[in-house]
């Protein structure tokens, strides 16, 4: 399929196509920015609104709950109701929720605004990704577009720390208000630039039972994982919640297998590349979120760095991702997604492992910067490649579904592995903490982070081995066919 906004013979991008991509990138940038930006502002919010630590935690968790819990529904809704329509409505809701979050004067209202923002992001993210995959034809053009798009997400996540550090110096409300004007400008541009998309014509009704079960299971899973470190992993509440999640997911699978128009077509997961992309997304984001959490604590609590100083320490990783944005697509064209994902995970493993060397008096250039550069290079390779691998070979009418599934893997992976890392660090917390004892309690968490990335690498390597086996079978079959076709009497 060739987009009407490109020149088929040359594959050139028109100004309108660039504008379309810019609108989608702006929304993805805001989604990622909002995940990371609020963390630095939490102490100021707590002081100003007189909030307890448990209430402050829900300012972060509320966004994750809305985002991770509704992504499956958001992706399928984009397929059924039209990607452009869903994207623009959700972006408008995001702008209003951002404005509300900057003006409220109570904790519950702030948490509500964060949940609404997460909910709207659960619709903009899969709708935006599916607009790209249905506008740009599969191959070099789509690879380039996805590399730019996913780079904006990684850059937004990294820049959120820096911007939050700067804005919180003036007022925490600015961190909440900043996305509002950007979202509004993107909405106005999107009304003019985004290609119109028809609703799916051949769907077999709306899978209401699947939507209810899928959304409920994801909401309960994210809620349970977020709360587990506080109420205890072995508590009756946590165990019963996980049991309920398992029951909901079992019923969900049974419903989807029988539904004429399922929320998720389970046949998509028969593809090895698709399964590896989903598991890789969980390992990629889960390991990075856990790493960022521990390193932020290390820098601010143990080294005494300011929020801005900490943010600047992460900046080289984000800058490396931003600089490489236009190059990754061409690298994918040449080497394929599996190889790049494998190389990226290998860089992450080395980067995380190197950080285990840090002490209470680190030299930034020698102890911290190498890890940041390796992790930045890994993000530049892995994140675009995962998106390309997950969406390649998928029919247009299922792009929203697959996009929602991939984003769900990212968010659920982040929530689960961050909770695991937090539990490991909490279990090893010293009774009489000294700076060195606290640092020693962080190391097992860093080991877990490294192991998560290693698991992502091993999962990816299975794809490379399968591919080599398939190639060998194809070559052997071709040689056998040539031998069978050889005329009688002809000898080597």
Automatic annotation (TrEMBL):
InterPro entries, alphabetized: MFS, MFS_dom, MFS_trans_sf, Sugar_transporter_CS
Subcellular localization, as worded in the UniProt entry: Cell membrane
Gene3D superfamilies referenced in this protein's UniProt entry, alphabetically: MFS general substrate transporter like domains (1.20.1250.20), Multidrug resistance protein D (1.20.1720.10)
Keyword Repeat tagged: no
UniProt cross-references to Pfam families, sorted A to Z: MFS_1
Protein name: MFS transporter
SUPFAM superfamilies xrefs: MFS general substrate transporter
Transmembrane regions: 21-43, 55-74, 86-104, 116-136, 148-168, 174-194, 206-226, 238-256, 277-299, 305-328, 340-358, 364-383, 404-425, 445-464
Keywords: Antibiotic resistance, Cell membrane, Membrane, Transmembrane, Transmembrane helix, Transport
Membrane topology qualifier: Multi-pass membrane protein
């Amino acid at each position: 399929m060739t987009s009407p906004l490109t020149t088929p013979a040359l594959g050139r991008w028109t100004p309108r196509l660039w504008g379309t991509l810019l609108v989608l990138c702006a929304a993805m940038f805001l989604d990622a920015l909002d995940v990371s930006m609020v963390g630095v502002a939490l102490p100021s919010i707590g002081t100003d609104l007189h909030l307890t630590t448990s209430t402050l935690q829900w300012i972060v968790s509320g966004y994750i709950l809305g985002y991770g819990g509704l992504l499956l529904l958001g992706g399928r809704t984009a397929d059924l109701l039209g990607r452009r329509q869903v994207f623009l409505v959700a972006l408008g809701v995001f702008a209003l929720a951002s404005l509300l979050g900057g003006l409220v004067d109570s904790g519950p209202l702030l948490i509500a605004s964060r949940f609404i923002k997460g909910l709207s992001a659960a619709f903009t993210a899969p709708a935006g990704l599916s607009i790209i995959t249905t506008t740009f034809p599969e191959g070099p053009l789509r690879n380039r577009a996805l590399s730019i798009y996913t780079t904006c997400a990684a850059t937004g996540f990294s820049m959120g720390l820096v911007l939050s550090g700067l804005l919180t110096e003036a007022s925490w409300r600015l961190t909440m208000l900043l996305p509002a004007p950007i979202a509004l400008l993107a909405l106005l541009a999107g009304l003019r630039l985004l290609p119109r998309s028809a609703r799916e014509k051949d769907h077999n009704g709306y899978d209401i039972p699947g939507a209810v079960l899928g959304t409920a299971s994801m909401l309960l899973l994210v809620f349970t994982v977020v709360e587990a470190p506080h109420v205890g992993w072995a508590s009756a509440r946590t165990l019963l919640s996980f049991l309920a999640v398992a029951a909901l997911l079992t019923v969900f699978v049974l419903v989807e297998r029988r539904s004429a128009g399922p929320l998720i077509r389970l046949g998509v997961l028969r593809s090895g590349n698709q399964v590896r992309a989903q598991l890789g997304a969980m390992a990629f984001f889960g390991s990075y979120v856990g790493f960022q959490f521990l390193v932020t604590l290390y820098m601010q609590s143990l080294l005494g760095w300011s929020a801005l100083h900490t943010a600047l320490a992460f900046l080289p990783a984000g800058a490396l991702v931003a600089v490489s944005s236009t190059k990754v697509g061409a690298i994918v064209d040449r080497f394929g997604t599996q190889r790049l994902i494998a190389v990226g995970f290998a860089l992450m493993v080395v980067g995380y492992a190197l950080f285990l060397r840090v002490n209470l008096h680190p030299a930034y250039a020698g102890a911290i910067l190498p890890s940041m550069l390796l992790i930045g290079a890994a993000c530049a390779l892995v994140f675009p490649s995962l998106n390309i691998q997950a969406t390649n070979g998928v029919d247009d009418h299922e792009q929203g579904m697959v996009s929602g599934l991939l984003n769900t893997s990212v968010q659920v992976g982040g929530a689960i592995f961050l909770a695991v890392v937090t539990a490991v660090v909490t279990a090893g917390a010293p009774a009489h903490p000294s700076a060195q004892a606290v640092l020693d309690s962080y190391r097992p968490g860093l080991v877990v982070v490294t192991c998560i990335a290693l698991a992502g690498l091993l999962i990816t390597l299975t794809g490379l081995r399968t591919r080599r086996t398939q190639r060998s079978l194809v070559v052997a079959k071709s040689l056998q066919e040539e031998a069978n076709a050889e005329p009688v009497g002809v000898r080597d």
